[in-house]
């Protein structure tokens, strides 16, 4: 099974779904689920139980967290073309990712 074209740290754009057009950095890749977590995209609100901590403050309450996105809903961002399809090219025996439009290594 081929690995995902998207890696941690990549800049990606949403090409489908409610956050379509949003861009962010990949925080985590979940290859088995074929999903990625993108900074600031697909945020969900979680209500956690409020509990006192030792310093006399409170923890919990409302937390905002990014939920995983299917990789088919995101595209790698080329500096020239914006969201793009990814191709592969072999250089010095190693496969590198390139923009399908302009051929720039991504
Ligand atoms: Zn390009």
Mean pLDDT: 90
Strand content is over 45%
As an assembly, this protein is single chain
| Cα gyration radius (Å) | 18 Å
Bin the helical content.
under 10%
The string of secondary-structure elements, in order, is EEEEEEEEEE
Judging by the overall fold, what is the CATH architecture of the domain at 11-77? Answer: Roll
**What is the tally of helical segments?**
0
Which fold name is given in CATH as the topology of the domain at 11-77? Answer: SH3 type barrels
Ligands bound here? zinc ion
- Main beta sheet strand tally, sense and closure: 6 strands, antiparallel
Question: Strands, helices and their partners?
Answer:
Elements: E1 11-14, E2 23-30, E3 35-38, E4 43-52, E5 58-66, E6 69-70, E7 74-78, E8 82-84, E9 86-91, E10 94-99
Antiparallel strand pairs: 1-2, 1-7, 2-3, 3-6, 4-5, 7-8, 9-10
Bound molecules: zinc ion.
Key descriptive features of the protein:
106 residues, mainly beta, SH3 type barrels, six-stranded antiparallel β-sheet, two-stranded antiparallel ribbon, elongated, binds zinc ion
Give a verbal description of the structure.
The protein has 106 residues and is an all-beta fold. The chain has a domain at 11-77: SH3 type barrels (Roll), CATH 2.30.30.30. Helix content is 0%, strand content 54%. The chain has no helices and ten strands. It has strands at residues 11-14, 23-30, 35-38, 43-52, 58-66, 69-70, 74-78, 82-84, 86-91, 94-99. Strands 6-3-2-1-7-8 form a six-stranded antiparallel β-sheet, with no helix packed on it. A two-stranded antiparallel sheet has the order 4-5. A hairpin with a 4-residue loop joins strand 2 (23-30) and strand 3 (35-38). It starts with 10 loop residues before the first strand and ends in a 7-residue tail after the last strand. The structure holds zinc ion. The site of zinc ion (ZN) has 8 residues, from loops.
């Amino acid at each position: 099974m081929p690995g995902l074209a998207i890696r941690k740290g990549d800049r990606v754009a949403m090409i489908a779904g409610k956050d379509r057009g949003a861009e962010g950095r990949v925080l985590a890749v979940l290859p088995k689920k074929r999903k990625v977590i993108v900074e600031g995209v697909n945020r969900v609100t979680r209500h956690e139980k409020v509990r006192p901590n030792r310093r006399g403050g409170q923890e919990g309450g409302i937390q905002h967290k990014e939920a995983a996105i299917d990789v088919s809903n995101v595209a790698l961002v080329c500096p020239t073309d914006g969201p793009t399809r990814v191709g592969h090219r072999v250089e010095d025996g190693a496969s590198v990712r390139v923009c399908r439009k302009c051929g720039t290594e991504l």
